[in-house]
Design goal:
The complex is a heterodimer of chains A (350) and B (271). With 350 residues, chain A is mainly α. Helices cover 76% and strands 1% of the residues of chain A. Chain A has 13 helices and 2 strands; from the N terminus they run αββαααααααααααα. Chain A starts with 8 loop residues before the first helix and ends with a helix. Chain B is built from 9 helices and 12 strands. In chain B, 30% of the residues lie in helices and 27% in strands. The chains are: A mainly alpha (350), B alpha/beta (271). At the A-B interface, helix 1, helix 8 and helix 9 of A face helix 2, strand 6, helix 3, helix 5 and helix 7 of B.
């Protein structure tokens, strides 16, 4: 092989690189514009149809400032955390079907929520009651977060670390099944917890206030830079584990850090908005389809796409049957499900 | 220092420090012994490792790359135990090309992104690639004739094209030791020849090139041939030596003969 082909390298390369960059820039700008439009819609959409309350009286601006604005922002931030977690999970497990809830965080969070909700009626069961008492002090949000973390910690313990991906996935499934079963047991003993549990399982953006926005923004500010810096680990993992290790990566350490990022992002999102379905799965797919790129861009864009998707779902959930409201998780499941279905069909036909 | 249970039959006097050396290496996979007390010293030049399927060739290469912990014995890199190197400095000194399996290499990486990963041991996770890295990537792409499609995605390429990209990834490391597991798989004859020429050139420039090869006519062009069977070295020396040729015929059950065609050695199947 000669060095002939080095001549004239510049033009062809630059043109094709520019094409990829152009696609990414277009997609990013598109996401930004759609997010802005959706944010406007989120501020305008209320229980009695669409209104533009900033021209109105003091009450109206109170609704805007204290309810619609934090809810809109919170929905975007929750979606962004889920999108980021989904991209990390899919890169880490080298599986396009991986989603943020795989490692036991969902089951852990829902068990904790059920325990809090059932705290009042579990007086007869001493241990359960003690646990529930402790969790109740944390509040529902804190409990869900703690539960998600305990779920992931159990998974890691069962898999003896993050060295072996199949083991980790299997441990996640086992922890998920066992913790869900425990949650079901508790809610059988305390049926009044079922309603709250259902709201949590479906996901809801209705309770997001400024405090939630602060917590979510802080979580995003923590997880995005770490994930972005570790994007090259995910890139190298795409070549296979041994190849990644031969490139001098301390794979075990970085995988653990990525699992921590995954757990933190998922735990925060779940604690604020419940188990919102499909956003974490669909957002990275959307990014890879519209603007294929190495993981650095995919992670950032998946966060933005997740935010946009959940905000869109939130606006729909609020306005479709106003003054009633749909649980946002139902909307994301329908939207995300149909998107993946469309994707599958296209793949088969194309 | 452990002594090998089976001494190397390498006959010429070795330089003071071998680039890579294994002493009495035992490796088990899934509880089964794959390497059984294998000793070998590797020096600058091109060494081809050949032998029947399941003999431990790939396992040896992975152990040499530090990807498999030995159950007994030791791997030495430039006179120091391999385990004493940090993952990153090991990655800078040893480039390893995996045997290509279907389904590996996913993701949305372009050819150039993949080759750029070869600079990871030098850059670490956080530094941005500089002009030196770009030059190494450009050179690796040019050497393997991948420059023209460096913006295509890895999963869109044919097996042979992908093999060339992965080879470029290993070259981009610019490591003094190059371990290649079946570098000519999926390649058409002109590109197989090109790889052989490349390996010879690298070897001449002082790189320690170790390749597992199934294609015996190609392997016979190497400076040194190591015949491995049942996790042990059966023969080791120049492909021209009658002892090595005899061992080669024996380990393959007499299914081939080594002949000289046009001044070059080649293996001819006995039908």
């Amino acid at each position: 092989m000669t060095d002939r082909s080095r001549a004239g390298l510049g033009n062809a390369t630059r043109r094709a690189t520019d094409l990829g960059a152009l696609r990414r820039r277009r997609f990013s700008i598109g996401l930004l514009l759609v997010s802005i439009v959706l944010a406007g819609a989120g501020l305008a959409s209320g229980s009695d149809g669409w209104s533009w309350p900033w021209f109105g009286d003091a009450d109206a601006s109170l609704i805007l400032g204290q309810i619609r604005a934090p809810r809109t922002l919170g929905a975007w931030l929750t979606g962004a955390l889920l999108g980021l977690a989904g991209a990390v999970a899919q890169g880490l497990f080298r599986n396009p079907l991986a989603d943020p809830y795989l490692l036991g965080s969902a089951a852990g969070a829902s068990l904790a929520v059920v325990l809090v909700l059932a705290a009042g009626s579990l007086g007869g069961v001493a241990i359960g009651w003690a646990a529930a008492e402790g969790l109740a002090r944390l509040g529902l949000v804190g409990a869900a977060f703690a539960g998600a973390f305990v779920g992931v910690a159990l998974t890691l313990a069962l898999a003896r670390g993050a060295q072996q991906t199949p083991r980790l996935l299997l441990a996640g499934v086992i922890v998920g099944v066992v913790l869900s079963a425990l949650g079901d047991m508790v809610s059988t003993a305390a049926p009044e917890a079922l309603r709250g549990k259902q709201a949590f399982m479906l996901g809801t953006t209705g309770f997001l206030g400024w405090e939630s926005v602060g917590v979510l923004a802080l979580g995003l500010a923590l997880t995005v830079p770490i994930a972005w810096r570790l994007a090259r680990v995910l890139d190298a993992l795409a070549l296979g584990e041994d190849s990644a290790r031969s490139l001098g990566l301390a794979l075990n350490r970085w995988r653990l850090v990525l699992v921590a990022v995954l757990a933190l992002a998922t735990g925060l999102a779940v604690s604020q908005a419940g188990l919102v379905a499909f956003v974490g799965l669909a957002a990275p797919h959307l990014v890879r389809r519209c603007a294929p790129a190495p993981n650095g861009y995919t992670l950032l864009a998946s966060a933005a796409a997740g935010g946009t998707l959940l905000l869109a779902a939130d606006v729909l959930a609020r306005s479709l049957i106003a003054p009633q409201e749909l649980p946002v998780g139902v909307v994301t499941a329908v939207l995300g499900g149909s998107y993946l279905l469309w994707l599958m069909r296209r793949r088969r036909l194309g | 220092m452990a002594t090998g249970s089976e001494p190397s039959t390498f006959s010429t006097p070795p330089p003071p420090v071998a680039a890579l050396r294994v002493d009495g290496l035992h490796v088990q996979l899934g509880g089964l012994p794959v390497l059984r007390g294998l000793s070998l010293a590797l020096h600058p030049g091109w060494t081809a490792i050949v032998g029947p399927n399941g003999g431990g060739k790939s396992t040896l290469l992975r152990a040499l790359a530090g990807l498999l912990p030995p159950h007994a014995g030791q791997v030495w890199l430039e006179g120091r135990p391999l385990a004493a190197y940090s993952a990153r400095s090991r990655g800078q000194r040893i480039a390893w090309l995996a045997q290509q399996e279907a389904g590996e290499a996913r993701g949305e990486l372009t050819v150039r992104d993949v080759v750029q990963l070869g600079r990871l041991p030098h850059l670490g996770l956080f530094a941005a690639p500089g002009p030196l890295d770009d030059a190494a990537v450009d050179a690796a792409l040019a050497t393997t004739e991948c420059t023209d499609w460096q913006c295509r995605r890895l999963h869109e390429l044919s097996g042979g094209e992908r093999q060339r990209v992965l080879l470029a990834r290993a070259l981009a490391v610019e490591a003094p030791v190059l371990l290649l597991d079946e570098p000519t798989t999926h390649l058409d004859p002109p590109h197989q020849v090109a790889v052989v020429r490349l390996l010879k050139r690298l070897a001449k420039a002082g790189t320690t090139v170790v390749s597992v090869l199934h294609d015996l006519p190609l392997a016979l062009q190497a400076d040194r041939l190591v015949v491995i069977q049942d996790g042990r070295v059966r023969a080791d020396g120049s492909p021209r030596s009658t002892e090595v040729q005899g061992s080669l015929v024996t380990v393959f059950g007499g299914a081939l003969s080594i002949e000289r065609v046009g001044g070059r050695l080649t293996a001819v199947p006995r039908l």
